[in-house]
Amino acid sequence: MKTKDLLSVADLSAAEAEKVIAQALKIKRGPTPQLLSDKILVLIFEKPSLRTRVSFEVAIHQLGGYSFYLSPEEVGLGKREPVSDVARVLSRYVHGIIARTFSHETLQTLARCSTVPVINALSDLEHPCQALADIVTIYEKKGKLKGLNLAFIGDGNNVAHSLLLAASLTGINFRIASPPGYAVRDEIVQAAKGFASHSGSQVLLTEKPEQAVEDADVVYTDVWTSMGQEVEAEQRRKAFAGYQIDYRLLSLAKKDAIFMHPMPAHHGEEVAVGFLDSPCSVVFDQAENRLHLQKALLAEIFGKAGRTH
Question: DSSP characters for the chain?
Answer without folding.
Answer: --SS-BSSGGGS-HHHHHHHHHHHHHHHHSPPP---TT-EEEEEESS--SHHHHHHHHHHHHTT-EEEEE-HHHH-BTTTB-HHHHHHHHHTT-SEEEEE-S-HHHHHHHHHH-SS-EEES--SS--HHHHHHHHHHHHHHHS--TT-EEEEES---HHHHHHHHHHHHHT-EEEEE--TT-PPPHHHHHHHHHHHHHHT--EEEES-HHHHHTT-SEEEE--SS-TT-GGGHHHHHHHTTT--B-HHHHTTS-TT-EEE--S---BTTTB-TTGGGSTTB-HHHHHHHHHHHHHHHHHHHHSTTS---
